[in-house]
Amino acid sequence: MERAKQAFAKVPEVTLTFWIIKIAATTLGETGGDALSMSMNLGYLISTLIFAAVFIVAVTMQVRANRFHPVYYWTTIIATTTVGTTLADFADRSLGIGYAGGSIILLALLLVSLVLWHRVTGSVSISTIVSPKAEAFYWLTIMFSQTLGTALGDWTADSAGFGYLGAGLIFGGLLLIVVAAHYFTGVSRTLLFWSAFILTRPLGAVVGDFLDKPLANGGLAMNRYSASVALVTFIVVCASLFRQRPAQVAH
């Protein structure tokens, strides 16, 4: 039991602060990913390889830790958003799969990850992450959800023609429905958690695009480096002022 508590202590309690930081992290993933691939002209593939290396280091530190460490956890989350951004852009644009095709493929991978996780451990609830195997599924699922969110956000804003503000309202509205379901229905909390987790990524993607894309394309044309630094600062301040506790193990 002590080992289980230590393993689970690495996952933060899901509170309002958690979701605020998560949305900021996903927005950072978009501005940070675009900063390397576009502003620095490294391209999607090279940027993906760089961010993938950062993710491998971050997730290794996170998995090896014996307790919840905010720096390790949120660094890993941010790494999944940045590599998810450039990986989705590479698949959708460089490989020519397209936003719709990319979204469908990534949704399938996400569902496969969740199904395998459930088959192997018996649950996909974060309250049952008590082993390295479950944590590995946790981060794999997060990686797929972050990458899917980028493709889905671009698909809604660009291909579907809703624009960044319209797409932001759509995903924001869907998140409000999830929140309402949490407070007013008996829908599975695990289902609602993963629904919200997935939806925050396209919301962050369209907000990030709205901040840094040219005015002619419906964006605010903000400097990607400045926007990324501002988001990192915001995340650090939130994590410092509103200290998160590790979640509790389900008995």
Entry summary:
The chain is mostly helical and 251 residues long. The protein is built from nine helices and no strands. It has helices spanning 2-8, 16-39, 43-64, 70-94, 98-121, 132-159, 163-184, 189-212, 224-241.
Name its key features.
251 residues; mainly alpha; 9 helices; 0% strand; membrane
What does this protein look like?
The chain is globular. By secondary structure, it is an all-alpha fold. The longest helix has 28 residues. It has one domain. It starts with a helix and ends in a 10-residue tail after the last helix. Helix 2 runs antiparallel to helix 3. Helices cover 77% and strands 0% of the residues.
Beta-strand share of residues: under 5%
Structural class: mainly alpha
Q: Helix count, per DSSP?
A: 9
The level of helicity is over 70%
| Molecular shape | globular
Number of domains: 1
Mean pLDDT: 87
Could you give the order of the helices and strands?
HHHHHHHHH
Largest sheet: none
* Poorly predicted runs of 5 or more residues: 1-8
Distance between the termini: 10 Å
Number of strands: 0
